[in-house]
Amino acid sequence: MGLYSSLEAYGAYVRPMPYASELGLRILIGGAVREASVLGYRVTPLFSYYSCHGPVFRALLQMNRGKLPEKRDYGFICYCNRCGNSQAFSMGAGTGLEKLLKRMLEESDPRLPFGYIKLDEVASRAKTDTPSISSIMSALHKEGYTASRSHIASSAIKTDCPMGGCIRIAQKLHGC
């Protein structure tokens, strides 16, 4: 199954990894849980089975009327092709994933253009020290601009303020 066909069929984006069969079972169960919840049922996996002859994916599920429990554990499974390590990232508190998703949501503001501005570049052009992200974002917001941190670069911001405006604000913050 290709990357996009699994997304269409099961709501999961899949990358190649050595334990694809187990991942396939998890995706199958996840798809059943989502479909059942739309119909007002909750699903509990009892047993799952994979056979390479076919391949065959089977899951024994218990269905009950009612909503999914409030406390659910959603997450991501990652595999590093370089080192071979696997890691699961839970959506629970303390993992940083919630923080990342919050930042990405802030970045999705339609007023923000594509790309980001590195604060070191602003400082270099302004001939000042690098301003803190919080101080420059606060100043941008006060002037009516939209701004958020970038999830891609830790010392960068996304803003609808042009570079010239960022330079002026950085200079103002440093008393220039």
From TrEMBL:
Listed name of the protein: N2,N2-dimethylguanosine tRNA methyltransferase isoform 2
GO cellular component: nucleus
Species whose genome carries this gene: Hibiscus syriacus
InterPro entries: SAM-dependent_MTases_sf, Trm1, tRNA_met_Trm1_C
Family: Belongs to the class I-like SAM-binding methyltransferase superfamily. Trm1 family.
Annotated GO biological process: tRNA N2-guanine methylation
Keywords from the UniProt entry: Methyltransferase, RNA-binding, S-adenosyl-L-methionine, Transferase, tRNA processing, tRNA-binding
GO MF terms held by the record: tRNA (guanine) methyltransferase activity; tRNA binding
A UniProt-annotated Pfam family: TRM
Organism taxonomic ancestry: Eukaryota, Viridiplantae, Streptophyta, Embryophyta, Tracheophyta
